Amino acid sequence: MSFIPPFDLTEQYKVIGAEISAAVADVLASGRYINGPVVESFERQFADYIGTAECVACNSGTDALFMALRALNIGPGDEVITVPFTFFATAETISAVGATPVFVDIDLNTFNLDVGQVAAAITPRTKAIMPVHLFGQAVDMTALMAIANDHQLWVIEDCAQATGAAWAGAKVGSIGHIGCFSFYPTKNLGGCGDGGAVTTQDGAIANSLRVLRNHGQTGQYRHAEIGLNSRLDAVQAAILQIKLRYLDQWNAQRTVVAKRYHQLLQAIPGIICPTALAGGNSVWNQYTLRIVGPEANGRSGNGQWAQALEQGTRRDRVRLQLQQQGISSTVYYPIPMHLQPVYQQVGYQVGQFPNAERACQEVLSIPMFPELAADQQEQVAYGLKDSLLQVPVEV
Fold this sequence. Notes:
395 residues, 3-stranded antiparallel beta sheet, alpha/beta
């Protein structure tokens, strides 16, 4: 039995390490470490890859979201529709600009925004919709853009986990008005540190973003607004340029891994495999399945939810069994946004978004990276089957 990590960047580095070392050495020798030609070159290449006219690099996916909201003048008094099942940065950045996140439940099969519930959440204060292409799968952008256009709303795509994914043949980040990307190391296109980017077809929006990322400067020591320090350094840009060349290959390998998981796991009782939405092209940043337990019958109410957090769900017990077999797994995400303490303070309650709450009790992300071998996946499948037998539903 061998240890299987949730992801492994060492195999990737074995292939591209020499290229990265040479590129980093060139940057260090140049003395141009902030902005400069390497960053500009990466921005052009990434814009071409996504299919947009503009790309503005920054220092994190969180800053990408924050700057996108600022560039669209979204702030106090405004509402932005998004999902409660996502990483905290999605809602956090909406709150950080003074706007109010308005949550819409997810489709439990795809973990993405239930587009059919969006129209009912729109009010006169709604300014934007922020869909999250979670775990590498695209939201139904055809339906969402139709709603946004009907109501004259901005669409900011959170593409942090979906670089290279597509909907109806167009890459995410090119369909809405703005796309926001993270280059955190575990992402499909990940740097060797933090990084992010914003893509758009609109030159005026791109110019606003460039001002914002550099302290609001419109000229040397001339500040037109309060900005932030969010510049991608040239070393990361050089690394990302190299990795971009391999991205489609790595995403194709992830798809092979996902298909093999489907074959190995779909017949195991107690597991619900992720559903690929017709019309989309997932890049499988995570392979996230659901472990069905007694919680599926409805833990409703604050007391039951607190009990589930304290005592754990069937998913949590299965995860512990896997860990004892040397198989790592991750829970993305154990608490939905509306039940985070900071948002419960403004009146959200248990039961408002049942699909998101159920997902938080059932989801389990198993090892996923392009180099994951077939025998490792078989070990994961055997471990899951054995663990589910060890933790029956009646527990």
